[in-house]
Design a protein that fits this description.
Helix Hairpins, rod-shaped, mainly alpha, 2 domains, binds zinc ion, single chain, 5 helices, 4-stranded mixed sheet, 239 residues
Length: 239
């Protein structure tokens, strides 16, 4: 049976592994990735909406232009009609020319009204597209808010676990002899991974290689608090 210090060092390593897993879980939470994905989708829809809105403004400007022109035609026609009936023009040739102009203006007005109708229809179907995009953005935003609340809860839980493991580590290392702890921390810093392992069945449980009979014999003769390293991977061996 290994001494308490070695057992506590093994537990320290377990807690360190847990702490780094917790840090990773906090930094790379799947909900954060999901939120980023939905945000990107909403931003894409918003960009499309922007160009559709510009298209709609263009249609509105065109409609306004047609309205103005139709109003001008109406004014011109009432002017002509007034002159036709107020007796100021008597020459038949002039009267016929004016009647002809009035007829032409009426035909032009009809064409403009047809164009305007087409523009209004386009604006209507554009509005359907815009409404659909807006409801997509609204749904994205609602989902983002929901996931953000979920993520906040998850992070609070991870923080609590981290706090508990940190407190447990502080308690655990108090029972590890300082030189053993330094040896451990040096190995964690220089090579990482599993740096403390049991020597079981003649094999290092970090690299799973068998130690030579000579090496095992040598470790067997060491005091229970002596620090032995695996000749293969350098891990501190709990013997
Ligand atoms: Zn080893």
């Amino acid at each position: 049976m290994a001494s308490l210090g070695f057992e506590k060092l093994l537990h320290t390593q377990e807690l360190d592994t847990k702490l780094s897993q917790l840090a990773h879980a906090k930094a790379h939470h799947p909900l954060a990735a999901k939120i980023a994905e939905i945000k990107a989708h909403a931003a894409g829809v918003a960009t499309n909406v922007e160009s559709e809105r510009e298209h709609r403004h263009g249609l509105e400007r065109e409609q306004k232009r047609l309205d103005d022109e139709i109003a001008m035609i109406d004014a011109k026609r009432s002017d002509i009609e007034a002159k036709l009936y107020d007796g100021s023009i008597t020459a038949t040739k002039d009267l016929l020319a004016m009647q002809e102009e009035s007829k032409n203006l009426a035909a032009r007005k009809t064409r403009m009204e047809d164009t305007e109708l087409e523009i209004m229809e386009q604006a209507e179907s554009l509005q359907v597209v815009l409404d659909k995009a807006q409801s997509e953005i609204d749904a994205d935003e609602a989902k983002i808010a929901e996931l953000q609340a979920e993520l906040a809860d998850a992070l609070i839980a991870l923080d609590a676990e981290t706090e508990a493991a940190t407190a447990e580590r502080a308690e655990t290392v108090a029972d590890v002899p300082p030189d053993l702890l330094v040896a451990y921390e040096d190995l964690v810093y220089s090579q990482g991974g599993i740096v403390v392992a049991r020597l079981a069945g003649g094999a290092c449980q970090a690299c799973h290689l068998n130690l030579s009979a000579v090496a095992i014999d040598k470790i067997g003769k060491m005091g229970e608090d002596a620090v032995a390293h695996c000749p293969q991977c350098g891990a501190i061996l709990v013997h």
